[in-house]
Amino acid sequence: MEKLYYSNPYLAKWESSVEDVIEKDNKYYVVLSETAFYPEGGGQPSDFGTIDGVELLGLSEVNGVIYHILPAPPKSPLVSCQLDFNRRFDLMQQHSGQHLLSAVFFNIYNGKTSSFHLGEDYISIDISLSDVSSELIKEIEDKANDYIYKNIEVINFIITPEEVDKYPLRKLPPTKEDIRIVEIQDVDFSPCCGTHVTRTGEIGIIKIIKHEKYKGITRIYFKCGNRALQDFQNKNEIISNLTKQFNAAENEILDRAVSLAQDLDAALKKIKDSKDKLAYYESLDIIKAAAANKIITTFTDKSFADIQLISKHILSLGSYLLILSSASDNRILFTHDGNFEINCGKIFKEHLSTFKGKGGGSDKQAQGGFQNPEDMNKFVEFLKEMCGILPSS
């Protein structure tokens, strides 16, 4: 089988003879005399395309033989193949960009690429550097793009295992067979079985999106070529909309956003403080209206978060056992200060599911949620009977 993607990675249409067809699980594994469809390998996803107008279900390579998976067998011994070249070229841009970026990390800082992921949206590489600054990222990005602008030739060739020492390989191949080398001239020599552009200019641009620490090393996320262009277009549209929203120039947006965020934080703090004070006074009213230290109250206008805040204040003011429920959220809080021989979490674990509720908790506090108020109210009545609580309201 001739693998045309090595001799001409830009080939999008061709004809080929059918050499074998294997049926398995209502799918047909077709072997062609020659193919430009690249199967998944070397970190690069497989190609998409059609054979005689029938869309490929997938590609598989076993012992050097590429199987083209179709939903039906070819009707002719000579078939016409069509590659989704937009996808192919995108993968070529990303894969070649990865080689170049990895080479720059290695050549300048001896940062070795330990893994490589080429996804549908972004690429990532793991670099053996534990501390990577934003300044270093910019330096690497600038250098990689400088190589793109120089439009350096990218070639590939085959060497034997005995010839490995003749080349400054960035990584050693894990094989004893003949090795395909992808060379970015005077920049990088790497063993690789994937498809690549023929000159670095075709990568277009490399843009590092973000970097983060990962298991003692650094993971770099980036995009190349058309992906980087689309990313810029999307972000530029966001910035343009923000300039209109804030009525500010681009270089003023960040300061304006920071100022608004600070104002919002201050306002939220005031609201939080006010809600806390309100919860405190409501707690005093509830305690005053209670006939005993076992209190049950259903709130029609409070969220579960509000109830939690009220319970905190009640328990800070004395020894109480509480069943507080929110009619709007269909949720219950069952809690006490620790001076009661009642295990809240155990009761919920043993009985909550009987009332179609979900939840749990600890010795002194448990909470549960229900799909409707009827089930919640039935569980409240169960708790009242079990604990001997009389309602305060």
Considering the chains and any ligands shown, give keywords for the structure:
393 residues, alpha+beta, Elongation Factor Tu (Ef-tu), domain 3, Threonyl-tRNA Synthetase, Chain A, domain 2, Diaminopimelate Epimerase, Chain A, domain 1, 3 domains, 7-stranded antiparallel beta sheet, 5-stranded mixed beta sheet, 36% helix, 29% strand
Outline of the structure:
With 393 residues, the protein is of the alpha+beta class. It has three domains: 2-83, Elongation Factor Tu (Ef-tu), domain 3 (Beta Barrel), CATH 2.40.30; 88-237, Threonyl-tRNA Synthetase, Chain A, domain 2; 288-387, Diaminopimelate Epimerase, Chain A, domain 1 (Roll). The chain has helices at residues 4-7, 85-109, 134-149, 225-246, 250-289, 304-316, 344-351, 373-387; strands at 2-3, 13-24, 27-32, 34-35, 49-51, 54-55, 58-62, 65-70, 78-83, 113-118, 123-127, 154-159, 179-184, 188-191, 206-214, 217-224, 294-299, 321-326, 331-336, 358-361, 365-369.
